Every structure is written in structure tokens, then in C-alpha cells.
């Protein structure tokens, strides 16, 4: 098996941590295994408990490993939209080779040149996404490698994130015994698979309703224009149910998953369920219709907040409409309610890959596809994420015992180019 | 003979013995009376009477002094010497063995001594009383004078707070001043007992004046300041309540307020005339009246809050009862077509309908009174409570009637419950199907779902038929139950088989790049999976995985087991 083409993506969410192992073959992704674990270390998308997060990551990774029989070494880590800024960048270099053929080295240099911008000390560059390359004034070039030219320019978008949040995220991954092969902005990655090229070009809003937060990403002219995070999500619905039915949050979450319906008009009065009441030994029986009376107002609020945020960002009408994704949109009635509230074209994006045909996997699948694209254009080395299970276990233990040693070993490893160089810089900032 | 002589001798001896004993007894009594007479003679009555000489011997004192002296002289000179004579006479009677007469003499002498002793005691007591009166008068008149001075001082100091009563009090104090003069005159004249009476009267009057002077300012403040202010506040409160939409008994309240004001005026007049007790009593009545008015207004406010708080729930209860009555009626009519309802139950239902008609009228009247402010809220509250109670009673009757109808329709209700349960199962199955996100739902399963739904509709239609044929209904429901069960089983098998197929393909994906054959097989299996041919997809891919990674098949089966 050509391990080079195997990628592992890690989505650390507020309610769930997901790992997907996938192999790229003939430009299509085959999912090899999936790992999923409950997340207890995050609140509203931000890490609040490193140990709990590490435990969740390890649990999800172990599940994925058990499923596919490989030991996972390196992961592509998704960064959610919290405290993320996008800023345009421009880099110009002279083609270095004597025969004026543009090579990977030239692309690395032009990307490095595009990063030479002033950023605040508390922020860190997560990624530089090329929007177009310009060779000797000829623009709209997506892959200039092999072309002949003298002057190579790149227009791109620099993605920066809060250093603290990024540090905490990477720290968790490191402590879980994993190596970070790449960092990807989840909204950008999800947009790659959730919205079509035409939609991204005409303008589309991707709404990812997660457990603790809802991320709104607007794509237009083929590129990500804005990312906003709204501090409401599926957990708010569970809390509402917990308060409304006077039951524990765990029971409320269970009821939401099993019987939840987001559209009162379509909810059934025939479907009933019993739940224990806090502070007594008795159980109360409710119907799905009653449950929908709790869920719908909160979901409606989320969609209204999305609509208001769109207006605030200056988008009154996007031809592509809204694309919903995330675990919460799996709830029956969510799409109908969204159409009712947003009053524009709305659809749910569901990955079509075997084993992950659910909106909650949009981010993880997107991360793999996005990373694979980066490999192609930027020449990054993010593959070869797995090893035979028996060989990997001691290595993981060693990594868990000393994160610093791992970082230093990674530096000595000699991969000084591309992402390796950037990762080294990030860890130098954090650990020195 | 000797016996007779002996007996006579014995009698003589007995007589002599008795005579001796009697004489001894009487002598002893005579000695006692002699001692007593001597004691009386030697009592210091003269000295006691002599103490009066220290007082002014004139008028009443002189008269008394003379009387006591004469009395004492009479005792010493006549009464007690006559007792001495009596004692001699008793001695002589004893010597002549006239014991009975002697005894009578002793008794008479004893009585004389008792009278004499009583007279002496009276004299001593009167003397002491006279002397003590004089002494007590001196002390009490000093206290009364001080109290008088204090009263005059207080009167001057608090003249304004006493209002018009001050001048009457002043007159009263002037009248008391004359009593002091009279007292002095009586004392000068030696009329100590009369002087004593004056002192006592003075003390009582001064006490009364002092009490009046203490009470009147307080009562005046209440009469002229506190209560008028409270009444003004009350009037203001009434006005505010009227403007806030309270329908009050205005005329009654106005009369009460006017009465209270008149009473206050009367109390002021009584206080001017120093009828303090009567004024205080009337003031208490006025306060009670004001409190009652306040209570009345508070009750109005509370009643309004109650009415406004309860009206929606009573409205809701009324509407519920309205629906319940209509439902019951409809149910009764329906049940009548298929069952025989007992006469007693029919009467109860008629009674409930009648009670509802009555309460509906009462409710309309209440609504009219409430909306157009035709009645005070306390009255509305009572009305609302009555309506509430009647609605509860009707509801209870309806509940009972329903129970009776349900007991008649036991089989039918069980059939309805079963139908509802089957519908619930069908709905849950539809939702499960949606959650499984199958790439394609097999046509057979869709048909089964549709058929189950149709069978349930058919049973429901049979349940609506009149007259009801429970045999037909039960058969339709049994068929629906088995249809739903078949569909549920099929759904469970399909879902698990789809999951199995998906996981097997996923597990095999890692071998996809190993050979072209594997890749093609997996592509075929995936196509089958996407077309809803899950069994075929499993059959296709399972041998592939069993050959390459048998433990993965076990993992897949575990996962599928968890799903089911």
C-alpha cells in the first residue's frame, strides 16, 4: 500500500472529536476508517480542558486505528473559525532556474514572499491559500509549475489565528502522541466539498451548526471571503430541553438525538418518550410535538442570527444560497425550518463517501481533500500518516512522555521545507 | 333497810359532792368576771380620749370628745360597779345552793361586760380614727396641693394642645381651689372627718383632671390631625381606585365618610366638654369604621387581582367544559347507536348539560359585569369562585360519564389504543429510516410501509362506522399489527445489512489500490450499495475482506450489532 496517499484528519469539536483515515486514489477519496469520541474539553469551540481534550483525541484515534488496523502517526488538524482572520497577500519573486522554468522551489519562495506582512504579535499564520498565480503579467493561473517565465506573482489569502488558541490545539494533539502534518481552516476545507465550484464562484454561505458554535463562511468569486462564529449550537438545544423537561443534560442530548424534530408543523404527536425528572424517581412522558416546541425556537434563533450576520457582513442576497452542514442539521425538520426562516435556497451538504455519509463528517472529509490539494499545488508533504499498528504503539508512548523531545526530534528530522518549516517556527514560538 | 339507808347516804354524799363541785365552778367564773371587770376598769381609755385634746376641740371634735367622756364616765361609774354588785349577789346565791340563779347571774354579768368592752373598743377606735384622719389629712392635703400646682402648671404649658377644653379645665381647677379653702375651714373648725372627705374628693378630682389633661391632647391629635389625614388619604385612594377602573359603592362610601367626619366633629365637641371617656369610645368606633373602609378597599384590590389572575384560567376551564360537554354529547350520540346507555347515566348527562347551560348564563353575566364595570370586584370574585366550583363539578360529572361510556366501549377503546400504538411504531420506523440515511430505500420496504399505513387507515375507518362491528375492527387491527411488525423487522434487517455493506466496503478500501480486481469488485459492491442492493453488496465484498483481514469482519459485525 502506498502510504504516501493516506491522510488522517482530526476535527476537534465541542461535542465530538472525529478522526477520519482516508486514501486518495485516482483523485478520489476512499475512507478507510472513522473514529469518534465524545468531547468534554471544549466550550463554544475553544479548549478549556487540555487533559479532557487529549483523552478525547486518543479515544477517537484508537477507535479509528482499531477499525483500519494502522497506527496513526500524523494528522491534519482542523482549526475552527474562532478568532480567525483572513487577510489578502501578494508575493513576487524572480524565477530562479536558469532555463526560466517555474519549479516547486519558486512556488515555495513566492508563498514565503506573500507571508512577509505585518501581523500582530498575538497572532500566528495558519495557512496561506493561493488564489491565483501571475506569470509575467498573465493571471488566473492555478498551477504555474512547468511554465516558463521571469516574474512569478501570487495573490492569496493569509489565514491567521489566535496564538493562544492555536497553541492549545496543537498542544492537545502533541500530548495525544500525534504529529501535526498540516493545519487546515475547517470552514475553507468544508467549503471545498460542501459547495460546488460554481456556488463558490457565484456566492454561497456555508453554515456549520456544531455542538457549541455555528460557523458561517461566505464564499464568493471562488474564494473564502468571511468567517464568523456564532456562539450557539446543538448544546444550547440540549440545555433548553434539559431545562424545559427538568431532566439531566445527558438525557436531554439522548432525547434530542432519538426523537428531536426541528419543525413543529411536521413533528408527530404519536411519538412519545419517557425521561427521568431531576430530583425525583419518577419519569415524565412527552411527545415529539412537545419536544419540537423547545427545539424549533432555538433553531429558529440560530438561523435568524445567521441571517442577521449575513446582513452585517454585507451579503443581502447570495445566488448560491445557504449550504447547511454539521451534526445538528441531521435533525429532522432542520432543513424545512431553515428554508422557512432564511427564505432563500437552502440545502444540506452530505459527504457521499462510503462510511461517512453524514453532514457531521463534512469538516474531516474537507480537511483531507484540502490537504491533498495543497500537496499538489504547494508541494507539501502531509501524507504517509499511518504505520503498521504494532510498530507505532511504542512510538506514541514515547511521544506522550515528552512533547519537547518529539518537537526537537522533528526538527532534527531534516524536513526543513514547506509545512515542516512552518510547524517548526510555530513550535519554536510556543515552546522556547 | 340498810340498803335504803345506804342509798340515802349515797344520795346525800352525791348531792354534797355535786354542790361542792358546782360552787367551785361558779366561784371560778365569778373570779374570771372579777378579773375581766378589773381589766376593763384599768384600760387607758381616759388617756386615749385625752389625746384628742391635742386637736382643736371645737365643732365635731368637741362633740365627739364630750360624748366619749360621758360614755366612759357612765361605764366607770355605773355599769362596771353594777357588775360588782351582781358578783356579790351570785356569791350569796351559791352559798344558798341556788346554782341555777347564780348561773343566770353570771351570764347577765358577762353580757354587761361584753357591752362595756364593745363600747370601750368603739371609743378607742373612733379616737384613733379621728387622730389618724387629722394626720392623714395633713399628708394628703400636701400631696393634693402639689398635684394641684402641677395640674395648673401643666394646664398653662399645654393650654394650646388642650384646645377649648383648657378653659373648662381651668374652671374646674378654680373650683378645686375653693375645696382647699373649705378643707382649711373644716380643719380649723375641728371637723376632721368632713375635712377628710374633702381631701378624698380633691384627690379624686385632681386625678380625673390630670387624666383628662393627659388624654385630651392625644385624643385631640387623633381627632383633628390623624384621622382627618387618614380620611383624606382614604378619599384620595377611593378617587385613584375609581380612576383605575374600580367600580366602587360610591354612595355608600361617601355616606360612611360623611358619617365619620360628623362623628369627629362630635368627638371634638365632647372633648371640649371634658366627656373624655365618651369621646374615646366614639373615637375607637370611628377608627374601626375607617379601618373597615380601608379593608373594604383592600378587599376590592385583592378581589381585582384575583379576578384578573383567575379569569383566564376560568375562561380556559369554561372552554374546556364547553368542549367536554360537546364531546360528551357527540360521544353519547355515537355510543347510543351501538350500545345501550343506562337510564341513570343518561340522566346524569342531561343534568351536566343543564348545569353547563346555567353556568354559561352565569359566565355571560359575569363577563358583562366585568367588561362594563357593572359590579364591584369583591362581588365579581364571589361570582367567579362560584363559576369555578360549578365548572369543577360539571367536569367531575363529565369525567364520570366518560368513564361509564368508556366502560361500555372497552373493546373499542382498546382497539383505538392499539391503533395509536401501531401508528406510533410506523412513525418511529419512518424516522429511523430517515436517520439511517440509506443511499436508497428498497422498494419492498417502501411498499410495506405504505401497506402498513393503509391497513391502519382501514382499521380507523372501520372504527368510525356506525353501528360498530368490533369483530371487523379487531381483524383489521390484527392485520395492521402484523403488517407493522413485518415492516419493522424488514427495516431492522435492511438497516443492519446496509450498515454491514458500508462498513465492509470501507474496511476493504485499504486493499483497493492493491489490485485492479479488488478495485473493480469494490466498485461493483459500492454500486450495489448505492442502488439499495445491500444483501448483494455484502455477498460481494465479505469474501474479499475475509481473505485479506478476517478480524475486520468481526469488527464490522460488532459495529452492526451495536446498531441493532
From TrEMBL, chain A:
Provide the SHS2 domain boundaries: 7-194
In Gene Ontology terms, what is a biological process of this protein? FtsZ-dependent cytokinesis
| Sequence intervals crossing the membrane | none
Give the UniProt entry's GO cellular component terms: cell division site; cytoplasmic side of plasma membrane
Lineage at the top is:
Bacteria, Bacillati, Bacillota, Bacilli, Bacillales
Q: Where in the cell is it found?
A: Cell membrane
Q: What is this entry's stated membrane topology?
A: Peripheral membrane protein
Q: What does this protein do?
A: Cell division protein that is involved in the assembly of the Z ring. May serve as a membrane anchor for the Z ring.
| Bias (Low complexity) ranges | 399-411
User: Which gene is the coding source of this polypeptide chain?
Assistant: ftsA
Region: Disordered; residue ranges are 391-420
What HAMAP family does this protein's entry cite?
FtsA (MF_02033)
Q: Which family does it belong to?
A: Belongs to the FtsA/MreB family.
Query: What are the record keywords, sorted?
Result: Cell cycle, Cell division, Cell membrane, Membrane
Concerning SUPFAM superfamilies, the annotation shows: Actin-like ATPase domain (SSF53067)
Its name, as the record gives it, is Cell division protein FtsA
Q: How does it assemble?
A: Self-interacts. Interacts with FtsZ.
InterPro entries, A to Z: ATPase_NBD, Cell_div_FtsA, FtsA/MreB, SHS2_FtsA
Tree of life domain = Bacteria
From TrEMBL, chain B:
Pfam families xrefs: EzrA
Coiled-coil regions listed: 99-151, 250-338, 377-436, 470-497
Q: Does the keyword ATP-binding apply?
A: no
Q: Which GO terms describe its biological process?
A: division septum assembly; septin ring assembly
Q: Does the keyword Membrane apply?
A: yes
Membrane topology of the entry: Single-pass membrane protein
One Gene Ontology cellular component term attached to this UniProt record is: septin ring
User: Quick one: where is this thing mainly located?
Assistant: membrane
Localization in the cell:
Cell membrane
Which keywords does the record carry? Cell cycle, Cell division, Coiled coil, Membrane, Septation, Transmembrane, Transmembrane helix
For this entry, the protein name equals Septation ring formation regulator
Amino acid at each position: 500500500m502506498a502510504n504516501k496517499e493516506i491522510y488522517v484528519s482530526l476535527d476537534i469539536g465541542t461535542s465530538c472529536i472525529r478522526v477520519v483515515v482516508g486514501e486518495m486514489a485516482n483523485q478520489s477519496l476512499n475512507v478507510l476508517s472513522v473514529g469518534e469520541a465524545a468531547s468534554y474539553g471544549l466550550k463554544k469551540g475553544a479548549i478549556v480542558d487540555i487533559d479532557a481534550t487529549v483523552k478525547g483525541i486518543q479515544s477517537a484515534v484508537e477507535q479509528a486505528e482499531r477499525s483500519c488496523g494502522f497506527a496513526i502517526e500524523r494528522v491534519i488538524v482542523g482549526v475552527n473559525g474562532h478568532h480567525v482572520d483572513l487577510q489578502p497577500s501578494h508575493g513576487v519573486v524572480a524565477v530562479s532556474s536558469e532555463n526560466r522554468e517555474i519549479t516547486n522551489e519558486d512556488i515555495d519562495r513566492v508563498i514565503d514572499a506573500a507571508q512577509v506582512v505585518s501581523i500582530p504579535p498575538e497572532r500566528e499564520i495558519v495557512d496561506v491559500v493561493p488564489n491565483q498565480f501571475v506569470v509575467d503579467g498573465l493571471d488566473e493561473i492555478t498551477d504555474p509549475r512547468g511554465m516558463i517565465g521571469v516574474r512569478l506573482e501570487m495573490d492569496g489569502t493569509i489565514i491567521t489565528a489566535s496564538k493562544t488558541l492555536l497553541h492549545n490545539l496543537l498542544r492537545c494533539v502533541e500530548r495525544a502522541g500525534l504529529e501535526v502534518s498540516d493545519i487546515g481552516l475547517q470552514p475553507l476545507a468544508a467549503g471545498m466539498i460542501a459547495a460546488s465550484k460554481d456556488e463558490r464562484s457565484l456566492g454561497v454561505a456555508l453554515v456549520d451548526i456544531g455542538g457549541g458554535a455555528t460557523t458561517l463562511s461566505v464564499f464568493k468569486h471562488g474564494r473564502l471571503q468571511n468567517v464568523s462564529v456564532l456562539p450557539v449550537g446543538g448544546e444550547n438545544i440540549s440545555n433548553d430541553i434539559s431545562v424545559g423537561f427538568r431532566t439531566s443534560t445527558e438525557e436531554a442530548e439522548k432525547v434530542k438525538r432519538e426523537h428531536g424534530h426541528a419543525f413543529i408543523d411536521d413533528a408527530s404527536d404519536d411519538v412519545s418518550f419517557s425521561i427521568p425528572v431531576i430530583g425525583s424517581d419518577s419519569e415524565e412522558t412527552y411527545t415529539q410535538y412537545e419536544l419540537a416546541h423547545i427545539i424549533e425556537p432555538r433553531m429558529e434563533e440560530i438561523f435568524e442570527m445567521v441571517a442577521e450576520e449575513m446582513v452585517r457582513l454585507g451579503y443581502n442576497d447570495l445566488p448560491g444560497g445557504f449550504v447547511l452542514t454539521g451534526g445538528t442539521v441531521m435533525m429532522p425538520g432542520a432543513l424545512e425550518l431553515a428554508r422557512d426562516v432564511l427564505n432563500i435556497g437552502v440545502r444540506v451538504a452530505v459527504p457521499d463517501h462510503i462510511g461517512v455519509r453524514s453532514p457531521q463528517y463534512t469538516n474531516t472529509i474537507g480537511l483531507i481533500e484540502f490537504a491533498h490539494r495543497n500537496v499538489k499545488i504547494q508541494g507539501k508533504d502531509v501524507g504517509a500518516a499511518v504505520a503498521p499498528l504494532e510498530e507505532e504503539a511504542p512510538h506514541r508512548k514515547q511521544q506522550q512522555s515528552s512533547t519537547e523531545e518529539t518537537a526537537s526530534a522533528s526538527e532534527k528530522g531534516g524536513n526543513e521545507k514547506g509545512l515542516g518549516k512552518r510547524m517548526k517556527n510555530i513550535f519554536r514560538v510556543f515552546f522556547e | 333497810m340498810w340498803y335504803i339507808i345506804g342509798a340515802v347516804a349515797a344520795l346525800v354524799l352525791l348531792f354534797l359532792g355535786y354542790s361542792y363541785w358546782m360552787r367551785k365552778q361558779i366561784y371560778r367564773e365569778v373570779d374570771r368576771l372579777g378579773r375581766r371587770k378589773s381589766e376593763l376598769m384599768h384600760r387607758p381609755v381616759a388617756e386615749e380620749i385625752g389625746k384628742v385634746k391635742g386637736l382643736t376641740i371645737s365643732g365635731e371634735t368637741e362633740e365627739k370628745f364630750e360624748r366619749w367622756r360621758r360614755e366612759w364616765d357612765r361605764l366607770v361609774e355605773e355599769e362596771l360597779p353594777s357588775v360588782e354588785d351582781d358578783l356579790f349577789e351570785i356569791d350569796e346565791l351559791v352559798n344558798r345552793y341556788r346554782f341555777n340563779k347564780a348561773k343566770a347571774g353570771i351570764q347577765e354579768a358577762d353580757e354587761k361586760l361584753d357591752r362595756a368592752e364593745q363600747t370601750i373598743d368603739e371609743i378607742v377606735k373612733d379616737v384613733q380614727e379621728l387622730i389618724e384622719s387629722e394626720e392623714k389629712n395633713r399628708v394628703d392635703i400636701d400631696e393634693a396641693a402639689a398635684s394641684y400646682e402641677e395640674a395648673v402648671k401643666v394646664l398653662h404649658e399645654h393650654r394650646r394642645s388642650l384646645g377649648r377644653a383648657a378653659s373648662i379645665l381651668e374652671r374646674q381647677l378654680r373650683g378645686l381651689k375653693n375645696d382647699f379653702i373649705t378643707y382649711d375651714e373644716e380643719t380649723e373648725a375641728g371637723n376632721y372627718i368632713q375635712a377628710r372627705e374633702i381631701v378624698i374628693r380633691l384627690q379624686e378630682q385632681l386625678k380625673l383632671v390630670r387624666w383628662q389633661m393627659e388624654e385630651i391632647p392625644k385624643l385631640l391629635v387623633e381627632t383633628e390631625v390623624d384621622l382627618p389625614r387618614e380620611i383624606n388619604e382614604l378619599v384620595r385612594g377611593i378617587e385613584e381606585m375609581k380612576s383605575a377602573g374600580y367600580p366602587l359603592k360610591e354612595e355608600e362610601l361617601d355616606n360612611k365618610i360623611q358619617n365619620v367626619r360628623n362623628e369627629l366633629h362630635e368627638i371634638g365637641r365632647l372633648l371640649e366638654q371634658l366627656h373624655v371617656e365618651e369621646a374615646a369610645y366614639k373615637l375607637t368606633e370611628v377608627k374601626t369604621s375607617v379601618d373597615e373602609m380601608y379593608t373594604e378597599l383592600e378587599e376590592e384590590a385583592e378581589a381585582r387581582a384575583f379576578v384578573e389572575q383567575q379569569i383566564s384560567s376560568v375562561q380556559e376551564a369554561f372552554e374546556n367544559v364547553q368542549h367536554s360537554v360537546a364531546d360528551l354529547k357527540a360521544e353519547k350520540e355515537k355510543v347510543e347507536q351501538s350500545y345501550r346507555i343506562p337510564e341513570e347515566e343518561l340522566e346524569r348527562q342531561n343534568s351536566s348539560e343543564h348545569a353547563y347551560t346555567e353556568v354559561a348564563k352565569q359566565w355571560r353575566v359575569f363577563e358583562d359585569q366585568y367588561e362594563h364595570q357593572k359590579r364591584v370586584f369583591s362581588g365579581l370574585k364571589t361570582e367567579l369562585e362560584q363559576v369555578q366550583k360549578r365548572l369543577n363539578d360539571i367536569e367531575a360529572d363529565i369525567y364520570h360519564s366518560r368513564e361509564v361510556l368508556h366502560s361500555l366501549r372497552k373493546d373499542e377503546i382498546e382497539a383505538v389504543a392499539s391503533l395509536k400504538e401501531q401508528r406510533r411504531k410506523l412513525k418511529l420506523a419512518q424516522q429511523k429510516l430517515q436517520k439511517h440515511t440509506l443511499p436508497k430505500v428498497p422498494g419492498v420496504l417502501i411498499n410495506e410501509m405504505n401497506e402498513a399505513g393503509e391497513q391502519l387507515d382501514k382499521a380507523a375507518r372501520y372504527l368510525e362506522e356506525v353501528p360498530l362491528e368490533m369483530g371487523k375492527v379487531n381483524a383489521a387491527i390484527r392485520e395492521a399489527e402484523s403488517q407493522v411488525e413485518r415492516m419493522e423487522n424488514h427495516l431492522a434487517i435492511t438497516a443492519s445489512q446496509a450498515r454491514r455493506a458500508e462498513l465492509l466496503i470501507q474496511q476493504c478500501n485499504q486493499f483497493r489500490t492493491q489490485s485492479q480486481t479488488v478495485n473493480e469488485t469494490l466498485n461493483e459492491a459500492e454500486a450495489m450499495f448505492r442502488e439499495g442492493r445491500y444483501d448483494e453488496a455484502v455477498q460481494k465484498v465479505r469474501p474479499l475482506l475475509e481473505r485479506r483481514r478476517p478480524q475486520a469482519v468481526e469488527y464490522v459485525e460488532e459495529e452492526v450489532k451495536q446498531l441493532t
